[in-house]
Batch of 4 targets.
Target 1
Amino acid sequence: MPRVVSGNRRGTILDAPKGEATRPTTDKVKEALFSSIQMKVPDSDFLDIFSGTGQMAIEALSRGATSAVLIDQAKASIDVIRKNIEKTRLSDETTVLKMNFTEALRKLGKEGKTFDIIFMDPPYAMAEKYAKEAARLILEGGLLKKEGLFIVESDSKTLIDENVTNMTLLKSCKYGSTLVTFFLE
């Protein structure tokens, strides 16, 4: 079961959808990722694409982010995300969008929304394709604030680089079978 590892909601156990359709980010990866961006999280606006359980956005809010938008199209995931948001009492800070990520990114761009941190954890088999599409829509929609981060989680065999995103590659960090790649706008 996923849990909040730090901040004012630390230790809260979160629910996850039943079955194998959702693969929550492990605590080890989550802790390492947030440790590396800890200075950017307070007072940030966070976007969580392929949110699954909502744990990454909830973690960001627990660590001081101001707001979070969570995107997923699976009904089971949306139900769990809403339950976890209610459990952590973060309803006022969150917006949940039940739609395809491309539709959601277009919608957010049209609304003029911007984010300091955009995190994406797509199905690993589609990580490169979806990261490329998301990066294009993020740039077209002006969704990433100046000096904002676009972070992609994938399996360690999938290289996500500048050729995929047209953003500046900061670093890639491997944690077992998981690769987390950081880009700067």
Target 2
Amino acid sequence: MSKTQRILRHLMYPHWRVRLAFPKAALKAIEALVAASETMHDGELRFVVEGGLDLPQLLRGLSARQRAVEAFSQLRVWDTEDNSGVLIYVQLADRQVDIIADRGIDKKVGEQTWQCICAGMQKAFRAGQFEAGALEGVEAAGRVLAENFPAKCENQDELPNAPVIL
């Protein structure tokens, strides 16, 4: 796809399409699963959905991965005591899913694990199953975190569980 085609796709991606893919009930289900998942591990999950990027971001050539890193920073997912934040970023206009893990998680969990989870989510999204794909991704990330970072006795919920729509 050319740069011009990408810019047009993003600028013509209306915000209501994000709400169509992720209605309130789906967002509530994702929030509940994040909360339940976090009782099983010491990680902190954030789920973020974005429709299209704005023109300055597109002119800079910002990739979905780079935007995910920006969102990780803006939402302060890195701001956990054990550096245990994980961001699941869904970029609808580019049809991309990225997972960004804080350095405490990155030491134990390889990028290939996250890419596998992203691929499963993207497959569900291509089939129009946004809620199911999102729940599958959150559940899979939670299992990875539970295996590598089981919950301690005092498991604080350091970040909000509600999904974010940018």
Target 3
Amino acid sequence: MQQTSKYKLNLIETSDRFSPDPLNENAEKLETQLAAETQARTAADTAEARARADADAAEAKVRADADTAETNARKSAVAAEAKTRADAIAAEAKARADADAAETKARTDAITAEAKARTDAIAAEAKARADADTAETSARKSADTTETNARKAADTALDTRVKALEAHKAAWGSYGGNDKDNRAINVGFAPGVVLICAVSTHDSSTIMAVTGTTSAYITFTSTGFQVKSTYNSSNARFMYLAMC
């Protein structure tokens, strides 16, 4: 027989002579413990049954109260919804009536305003046409006068330009060098500027002279200019531009 924490049984040592007393005492202890457990279980089952019955009763009451509250809430909601619908229908009817009245008034006002605007527009258009005709006539007269003056001014300016252009002359050409000094180049007028450019494979120098200045290579004449031998070397060609 072993010792446990629940059943405090008598131990029988191996050295003791066999005796049934300890076993009987252990059996009585077991029966007493089992009886106590059976009584406790019965009491627990009774308490559990009572608790279950109380819980069922409470739940039934809560359900009944909830059903009653839900029924009352539904009735209140239906009544409130019916009132809200009635109020909405009445408000919609009033709004429609007000909108129809406002629309009728707006249409009448718009027609009146449109008629007045058309009358004013016709009168304004007639006045504008008359003013435009008057302004056009005046503008035409002014434009004719301006055009006449402009034509006269243009003719005068053209005459001035022609005279100015005729006063300026230009000539260009080329000549082959012959190594002579003071070689004369005839362009038909007395130039004011002469530009000479050597065009050869070994020389491409350029010289320019302006009347009233001193040049070592160009001398102005009444019919053109003269060049020194430096810009008249043989086996070379020279381009010139003379202007006045």
Target 4
Amino acid sequence: MRLAREGHIINKPVDILKNPLTLEFLGLKPDVAYSETKFENAIISKMQHFLLELGKGFLFEARQKRFTFDEDDFFVDLVFYNRLLQCYVLIDLKVGKLTHQDLGQMQMYVNYYDRYVKRDFEKPTVGILLCKEKKDALVELTLPKNSNIYAQQYALYLPDKKLLQNKLQEWLEEQEE
């Protein structure tokens, strides 16, 4: 209801994220196995749609962005810049269940960007793990409370109409209480 009255207001990184993202336009079948590479290729080929689904202010910078640290190479799946927040947004794609190792890896990517890439006038880097399945308890336990890392679920297709109607009814009942 607030969104209907005020519009989409962006004050902090969590305000730019949809949950879940609906990636129907990628054309991936939910019942067929696909790799992170195929997932990434689908996103790149439909970049305009993906940017619109992400939200406001996103600019695409790179895919498989390599950086070298301590003589090891690391690759960030997708690198964006958000002009409204004035910060880098790193996205790592996961086609399965999110793990604590995934969160730790993203923390390292964010730390690297904050220390070696970001300029003084820019805000802290945001990390997004775009995953098929996540457990909020795992995310809360693994990341510090003030972390700029978010695990966001994606869905390849919107749920059926009946499920959406049930969710809306549940929400309306909660609002009445």
